Protein: SH3b domain-containing protein
Organism: Paracoccus onubensis
Amino acid sequence: MAVWSAHGMALAEISGTGSGSGQSPDPHVILAQSELPANAKIDRNAGEERGSVTNLPLPRYVSLKGSEGNARRGPSLSHRIDWVFRHAGMPLRVVAEFGHWRRVEDKDGAGGWIHYALLSGVRTAVVVQDMAELRARPNPDSDVVARAESGAIVKLGECNPDWCSISGGGERGWVPKTDIWGADPGEIRE
Protein backbone atom coordinates (compact mmCIF):
# COMPACT_ATOMS: atom_id res chain seq x y z
CA MET A 1 0.00 0.00 0.00
CA ALA A 2 1.35 3.46 -0.86
CA VAL A 3 1.42 6.40 1.50
CA TRP A 4 1.46 9.85 -0.08
CA SER A 5 2.17 13.28 1.27
CA ALA A 6 0.46 16.63 1.00
CA HIS A 7 2.68 17.28 -2.03
CA GLY A 8 1.46 14.16 -3.84
CA MET A 9 4.71 12.21 -3.41
CA ALA A 10 4.70 8.57 -2.40
CA LEU A 11 6.31 8.25 1.04
CA ALA A 12 6.47 4.51 1.51
CA GLU A 13 5.14 1.19 0.40
CA ILE A 14 3.28 -0.70 3.12
CA SER A 15 2.49 -4.34 2.62
CA GLY A 16 -0.16 -6.39 4.31
CA THR A 17 -3.82 -7.10 3.97
CA GLY A 18 -6.86 -5.98 5.88
CA SER A 19 -9.57 -8.13 7.34
CA GLY A 20 -11.61 -8.02 4.12
CA SER A 21 -15.01 -8.83 5.56
CA GLY A 22 -17.87 -9.66 3.25
CA GLN A 23 -20.52 -7.18 2.17
CA SER A 24 -23.50 -6.82 4.46
CA PRO A 25 -26.63 -4.67 4.14
CA ASP A 26 -26.03 -1.06 5.11
CA PRO A 27 -27.13 -0.65 8.76
CA HIS A 28 -27.52 3.11 8.20
CA VAL A 29 -30.39 2.74 5.72
CA ILE A 30 -33.80 3.27 7.25
CA LEU A 31 -36.84 2.43 5.20
CA ALA A 32 -39.97 4.41 5.97
CA GLN A 33 -43.31 4.75 4.30
CA SER A 34 -44.03 8.23 2.98
CA GLU A 35 -46.86 10.16 4.56
CA LEU A 36 -47.26 12.32 1.45
CA PRO A 37 -50.22 11.80 -0.84
CA ALA A 38 -49.40 9.94 -4.06
CA ASN A 39 -49.94 13.07 -6.20
CA ALA A 40 -47.71 15.35 -4.03
CA LYS A 41 -44.85 17.11 -5.82
CA ILE A 42 -41.53 17.37 -4.05
CA ASP A 43 -39.33 20.42 -4.72
CA ARG A 44 -35.80 19.12 -4.10
CA ASN A 45 -34.45 22.69 -4.16
CA ALA A 46 -36.87 24.08 -1.59
CA GLY A 47 -35.05 26.07 1.07
CA GLU A 48 -31.80 25.98 -0.93
CA GLU A 49 -30.17 29.38 -1.44
CA ARG A 50 -29.18 30.15 -5.03
CA GLY A 51 -26.54 32.52 -6.38
CA SER A 52 -27.97 35.70 -7.89
CA VAL A 53 -25.55 35.51 -10.85
CA THR A 54 -25.23 31.79 -11.66
CA ASN A 55 -28.39 30.42 -10.04
CA LEU A 56 -26.17 27.65 -8.62
CA PRO A 57 -26.53 26.52 -4.99
CA LEU A 58 -24.87 28.54 -2.23
CA PRO A 59 -22.72 27.51 -0.58
CA ARG A 60 -21.01 25.16 -3.05
CA TYR A 61 -17.51 23.81 -3.60
CA VAL A 62 -15.12 24.70 -6.42
CA SER A 63 -11.34 24.48 -6.80
CA LEU A 64 -8.52 26.89 -7.63
CA LYS A 65 -7.80 26.60 -11.36
CA GLY A 66 -4.16 27.78 -11.38
CA SER A 67 -1.31 27.78 -8.91
CA GLU A 68 -2.19 31.21 -7.49
CA GLY A 69 -5.33 33.20 -6.79
CA ASN A 70 -5.71 36.56 -5.06
CA ALA A 71 -8.56 36.86 -2.59
CA ARG A 72 -9.60 40.50 -2.33
CA ARG A 73 -11.47 42.45 0.32
CA GLY A 74 -14.25 43.30 -2.16
CA PRO A 75 -15.48 42.23 -5.62
CA SER A 76 -13.19 44.34 -7.87
CA LEU A 77 -9.54 44.80 -8.79
CA SER A 78 -9.47 48.08 -6.85
CA HIS A 79 -9.94 46.23 -3.55
CA ARG A 80 -6.95 45.26 -1.45
CA ILE A 81 -5.62 41.67 -1.61
CA ASP A 82 -6.18 40.04 1.78
CA TRP A 83 -5.13 36.48 0.98
CA VAL A 84 -3.28 34.58 -1.76
CA PHE A 85 -4.14 30.93 -2.40
CA ARG A 86 -1.06 29.13 -3.75
CA HIS A 87 -2.05 25.49 -4.41
CA ALA A 88 -3.54 24.44 -7.74
CA GLY A 89 -6.67 22.37 -7.17
CA MET A 90 -7.24 23.72 -3.65
CA PRO A 91 -10.88 23.22 -2.68
CA LEU A 92 -12.77 26.42 -1.92
CA ARG A 93 -16.33 27.05 -0.81
CA VAL A 94 -18.31 29.71 -2.69
CA VAL A 95 -20.53 31.59 -0.24
CA ALA A 96 -21.56 34.64 -2.31
CA GLU A 97 -21.60 36.01 -5.87
CA PHE A 98 -21.37 39.49 -7.36
CA GLY A 99 -20.93 39.94 -11.12
CA HIS A 100 -17.77 38.09 -12.19
CA TRP A 101 -16.63 37.69 -8.58
CA ARG A 102 -17.13 34.85 -6.09
CA ARG A 103 -16.68 35.14 -2.32
CA VAL A 104 -14.75 32.00 -1.29
CA GLU A 105 -13.45 30.44 1.91
CA ASP A 106 -10.90 27.71 2.54
CA LYS A 107 -11.18 25.00 5.20
CA ASP A 108 -10.02 27.47 7.86
CA GLY A 109 -12.51 30.18 6.85
CA ALA A 110 -9.85 32.39 5.24
CA GLY A 111 -10.71 33.91 1.90
CA GLY A 112 -12.19 36.80 0.04
CA TRP A 113 -13.46 37.74 -3.40
CA ILE A 114 -11.87 35.92 -6.37
CA HIS A 115 -12.56 36.48 -10.08
CA TYR A 116 -14.56 33.55 -11.44
CA ALA A 117 -11.96 32.88 -14.17
CA LEU A 118 -9.54 31.66 -11.47
CA LEU A 119 -11.97 28.98 -10.29
CA SER A 120 -12.84 25.55 -11.66
CA GLY A 121 -15.91 23.40 -11.20
CA VAL A 122 -13.67 20.34 -10.71
CA ARG A 123 -14.33 19.00 -7.22
CA THR A 124 -11.36 18.42 -4.97
CA ALA A 125 -10.92 17.93 -1.24
CA VAL A 126 -8.16 18.42 1.30
CA VAL A 127 -7.31 15.65 3.74
CA VAL A 128 -7.75 16.87 7.35
CA GLN A 129 -6.96 13.61 9.17
CA ASP A 130 -3.24 12.79 9.35
CA MET A 131 -2.47 9.46 7.70
CA ALA A 132 -6.09 9.04 6.62
CA GLU A 133 -6.75 5.46 5.57
CA LEU A 134 -8.09 4.97 2.05
CA ARG A 135 -10.16 1.82 1.92
CA ALA A 136 -11.12 -0.45 -0.96
CA ARG A 137 -14.83 0.04 -0.25
CA PRO A 138 -16.89 2.53 1.82
CA ASN A 139 -16.77 0.29 4.87
CA PRO A 140 -14.56 0.57 7.98
CA ASP A 141 -13.82 -3.17 7.74
CA SER A 142 -12.61 -2.92 4.12
CA ASP A 143 -8.92 -3.33 3.21
CA VAL A 144 -6.69 -0.25 3.58
CA VAL A 145 -5.19 0.45 0.13
CA ALA A 146 -3.27 3.68 0.88
CA ARG A 147 -2.78 6.44 3.42
CA ALA A 148 -2.76 10.22 2.90
CA GLU A 149 -1.14 12.95 4.96
CA SER A 150 -3.10 15.84 6.37
CA GLY A 151 -3.06 18.69 3.85
CA ALA A 152 -2.97 16.48 0.74
CA ILE A 153 -5.19 17.85 -2.04
CA VAL A 154 -7.11 15.02 -3.70
CA LYS A 155 -9.67 14.69 -6.47
CA LEU A 156 -13.18 14.04 -5.17
CA GLY A 157 -15.17 11.24 -6.75
CA GLU A 158 -18.36 9.48 -5.74
CA CYS A 159 -19.83 10.22 -2.29
CA ASN A 160 -22.53 8.56 -0.23
CA PRO A 161 -23.88 10.17 2.96
CA ASP A 162 -20.86 9.10 5.07
CA TRP A 163 -17.99 8.23 2.69
CA CYS A 164 -16.27 9.69 -0.40
CA SER A 165 -14.05 8.16 -3.03
CA ILE A 166 -10.85 10.19 -3.47
CA SER A 167 -7.80 9.87 -5.70
CA GLY A 168 -4.34 11.37 -5.73
CA GLY A 169 -0.72 10.38 -5.98
CA GLY A 170 -1.71 7.48 -8.22
CA GLU A 171 -3.91 5.97 -5.52
CA ARG A 172 -7.68 5.72 -5.14
CA GLY A 173 -9.87 4.73 -2.22
CA TRP A 174 -12.75 5.54 0.10
CA VAL A 175 -12.47 7.73 3.21
CA PRO A 176 -15.02 8.84 5.80
CA LYS A 177 -16.21 12.39 5.08
CA THR A 178 -14.88 13.42 8.49
CA ASP A 179 -11.33 12.83 7.14
CA ILE A 180 -11.64 15.41 4.33
CA TRP A 181 -12.86 18.96 3.71
CA GLY A 182 -14.62 19.62 0.42
CA ALA A 183 -17.89 17.69 0.70
CA ASP A 184 -20.85 18.49 2.91
CA PRO A 185 -22.20 15.96 5.43
CA GLY A 186 -24.94 13.97 3.76
CA GLU A 187 -23.92 15.16 0.25
CA ILE A 188 -24.34 12.48 -2.41
CA ARG A 189 -22.24 12.46 -5.61
CA GLU A 190 -22.42 9.85 -8.33
About this structure: The domain at 60-122 is CATH 2.30.30.40 (SH3 type barrels.).
